[in-house]
Amino acid sequence: MMLPRIGVFDSGVGGLTVLKAMAEQIPAHYFYFGDTARLPYGTKSAETVARYAIGATRFLEAQNIDLLVIACNTATALALPLIKEAAHVPVVGVVEPGAAMAAEVSTQRAVIVIATEATVSSHAYRDALQRHGLEAYEKACPLLVPLVEEGWTEHPVTEQVARIYLGEAMAQAPGHADVLVLACTHYPLLAPTLHRILPVQMQIVDSAESTARAVRQMLREKSGCHPERSEVTSATERSRKPALSLSKGNPLPEGGPPSEHRTFRFYVTDSVDKFKRLAARFLGRQVDNVEHVDLGG
Amino acid sequence: MMLPRIGVFDSGVGGLTVLKAMAEQIPAHYFYFGDTARLPYGTKSAETVARYAIGATRFLEAQNIDLLVIACNTATALALPLIKEAAHVPVVGVVEPGAAMAAEVSTQRAVIVIATEATVSSHAYRDALQRHGLEAYEKACPLLVPLVEEGWTEHPVTEQVARIYLGEAMAQAPGHADVLVLACTHYPLLAPTLHRILPVQMQIVDSAESTARAVRQMLREKSGCHPERSEVTSATERSRKPALSLSKGNPLPEGGPPSEHRTFRFYVTDSVDKFKRLAARFLGRQVDNVEHVDLGG
Q1: pLDDT recorded at residue B25
Q2: What is the ipTM of this complex?
Q3: How far is A269 from chain B, CA to nearest CA, in Å?
Q4: Model pTM?
Q5: Peptide bond before residue B40 is cis, with ω within 30 degrees of 0
Q6: B8, B114, B184, B268: which one is catalytic?
Q7: Which residue has the higher pLDDT, A259 or B76?
């Protein structure tokens, strides 16, 4: 069995929530690129973000990926069409899968979207949700990312901040909103806190889970069956170097079918140590295969 | 009377606390450059920070400044010698003035330094304080900048966060520490909150006030008298364009001596509107003369 090779691109560590959700659902080799030296993307122009993202795309394509996931809300919101145009593999962003899942879940056709300031300003979620016939109220929550990165995911301060933000959002959103979209890849780590605060009738949709579902669906369509049992072929396959020589990470459970072990490789443009420290928090386990790369700029 | 022309460089808005402290003490024309498109500098290498800072230095020198203030802790900590080497005007950083003032104020010869993670990792303050014979305990407070930028300077959440950070710092610092150094240009906005929390015997030294004092001192030495009454001359003076045609900002009080009105000009590499919004919070008044500039990269 040949596992698919999935590239995951983010400006930093947030995309690890998307990686985690995919890894739980899709056996694959994963190549994660975190552009940690140039984050945050939120303050940068669409042209600059596209240039950075396309540089990362080239790097990941050189790892012979079959599919590229843009696990970064800003890059998706500002540059997805340009990335798709530049890429030689199928590309999945995080916005449309989140909007599609919100559309499935919401019976009231009204949702609240919480995100960073940059994502809210882009209105990418509002537009995507409108295409699904949903009314959206977007609320910027700039303190939540720093709180997650500080490791205060289960902390009274974070709960208090979340109460303030959600209180403001619910005061202004349509009263019948029944879904909260977590439109930032850091926020899934706050889901337990948010569940405690939200009215019981409100459901949470997060971009990590919904993107993992979209990727699984795409692989299934590509192969005509479940990716778990599929052989994904691609134009780059002939030139592949063996992955096993570099393999660490999770082997499949003992007693399973003889198969290629899946591997996880991480590439970052800034400090490897800082990435490892944060990654452990996001993935719930230590990561080893982290390499520093320099794409210039 | 010819006012001195002072360039102020920061990665963003934090340096405005330094500008404010200087403007209260030193009549001058101020040229503020905020590299908002490339912040934060804290995660970047010394070489990259130096390259950005030198680009900004060139830009400010083209405004015929007499003196350059590096109002950014990271740029000072990582790149001050390189900036000094590249500049054609005298350069003042924020670290040494803060350390010098702490050395004057502390009777116990032991201080606590609070700063961003990047500044703490550089140990620039610890080293500067040691040169003054002071023992220093450095504590990173990553949530304080986002809290200030969210505008929560007088907010129960901020007080709670500050209590946690200072509690941790005081538990580990030498028991006789009698000065708290605010080693981040955002923190002066939190001084009232910090004063409420600190033991009464602890004094606060901030880099804005101390840098303003160092600049006043430097201008005084340069001119042999108070800058308020001085004429600062420089090599660039012959080529100066008249500043008054662009003048807005604070005229001197009515009834004062006939003099050139001081002016404030702001240059930013990212959104002008976002800078204006944050600047109003830092300066306590609206700013008008904000221009977008693009230095590439």
Answers
A1: 94
A2: 0.82
A3: 10
A4: 0.85
A5: yes
A6: B184
A7: B76
**SS3 of chain B: helix, strand, coil, percent, to 5:** 45, 15, 40
Give the residue-averaged pLDDT of B279-296: 90
A142, A146, A160: residue with CB nearest B157:
A160
Q: Among candidates B61, B57, B56, B20, which has minimal Cα distance to B37?
A: B56
Mutate to test the interface with B, among A35, A157, A278, A294 (most CBs of B within 10 A): A157
* Range in A218-227, B82-91, B161-170, B213-222 with the lowest mean pLDDT: A218-227
Q: Which residue has the tokens 């090599």?
A: B235
**Given the DSSP bridges, would you call strands A67-70 and A29-34 parallel, antiparallel or unpaired?**
unpaired
The answer on pLDDT for A25 being more than 60 is: yes
Separation CA A186–CA A208 (nearest Å): 9
Rounded CA gap, B205 and B200, in Å? Answer: 14
Asked if omega into A40 is within 30° of 0 (cis), the reply is: yes
Show the tokens assigned to B262: 């001081």
3-state secondary structure at position A257: coil
* 3-state helix/strand/coil string of B183-225: CCCCHHHHHHHHHHHCCCCCEEEEHHHHHHHHHHHHHHHHHCC
Half-sphere exposure of A124 (CA within 13 A, CB side): 25
Contact A69, A213 (CB under 8 A): no
| Sign of the torsion angle spanned by Cα atoms A164, A166, A171, A173 | positive
Burial class (CB in 10 A: 0-12, 13-18, 19+), B117: middle
- Judge whether residue B42 has pLDDT over 90: no
Closest residue in A to B160 (Cα–Cα): A157
| d(C-alpha B49, C-alpha A252), whole Å | 44
Query: Would you say B129 and B136 are in contact if contact means Cβ atoms under 8 Å apart?
Result: yes
Read off the pLDDT of residues A29-66 as tens digits, 9 standing for 90 and up.
999 999 988 887 876 778 888 999 999 999 999 999 99
Which of the residues B72, B101, B182, B183 is marked catalytic?
A: B72
Q: Shortest CA distance to A57 belongs to which of B71, A65, B60, A271? A: A65
Question: Could you tell me the two tokens for B252?
Answer: 């001197």
For residue A18, which amino acid is it? V
| Residues A229/A115, Cβ–Cβ less than 8 Å | no
Provide, as residue numbers in chain A, all residues whose Cβ is less than 8 Å from the Cβ of B164. 157
Closest CA to A181 of A122, A95, A123, A78: A95
Q: Do the Cβ atoms of A150 and B142 come within 8 Å?
A: yes
**A14 with A72: CB under 8 angstroms?**
yes
Catalytic residue among A22, A140, A181, A184: A184
Q: What is the pLDDT of residue A259?
A: 52
Query: How many angstroms separate the most distant Cα atoms in chain B?
Result: 57
CA distance linking residue A250 with residue A74, whole number of Å: 30
**CB pair distance less than 8 Å for A142 and B157:** no
